[in-house]
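Board notes (copied after class):
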Amino acid sequence: MTTPPNAPGPGTRLLAEQLGLGEPLTALAVRHPPGDRLHRLARALCQTATELDTGYWRAQQVGRQLRALRGRLASGPDGTDALKEEISSAAEELELMLERCEVLDTALIRLLGIYQDIVPAPRVNP
């Protein structure tokens, strides 16, 4: 499954869902401008979410590349060794991207927890 064009990635979606914000990156920047006591934390949240989004997008790209290489491999024996090397290289890259996404996801969840402990949730009028 691929993310539709211009759709927010998993980091941005997590912030949106947990903070109840439609555009969390913009909202956090506006809510906590430079000089605000939570500016650095808000900036770290935004940067980590953006890095997770980018890593996820890159992992999807490598997955599509692997699919295309598999199709080329299945179509005939020409250049099989070179294709196997390309597949191996892409698979290693995918593994690294997924490991990075896991680290970023964990960091984002921890930062989000800290932010939610410090900043009270907005009150909802019944």
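Comment from the instructor: The chain has one domain: 26-117. The chain has a mean pLDDT of 88.
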